[in-house]
Write a structure and sequence with these properties.
By secondary structure, the chain is mostly beta strands. It is 0% helix and 60% strand.
């Protein structure tokens, strides 16, 4: 998934494995373009239900390349809507790019 900003910069988010499921290790990759991000974190929030604080920080691998791991908590609902907000800290401030997805309990 990719978010574009008015200044032309972009943030891309990739999460594997797919489909995304709760209580499974997730590999997270963020790529930034046109933005000199020094730090990146991904804030996972349950939509419609508080799932607690879950904000893994990613490791910078190269200019514009960040990766790390995370995990979603389980939910009593069969289908859960989530928002993963990429928070990229740069000289200009913090850029936030929200991405929405759903998990389905197996």
């Amino acid at each position: 998934c990719q978010a574009r900003f008015a200044d032309g910069s972009r943030i891309s988010l990739s999460i594997v494995p797919r489909p995304i499921q709760a209580l499974q290790p997730l590999q997270i990759r963020v790529t930034t373009e046109g933005l000199d991000a020094q730090e990146v974190a991904v804030d996972f929030q349950g939509l419609g239900m508080n799932m607690g604080y879950n904000r893994p920080r990613l490791k910078k691998e190269a200019d514009g390349q960040f990766s790390g791991s995370g995990m979603l908590s389980t939910c009593i609902l069969e289908r859960m809507s989530w928002e993963a907000t990429v928070l990229a800290k740069a000289d200009e401030g913090v850029m936030a790019a929200p991405f929405r997805f759903e998990t389905i309990r197996p």
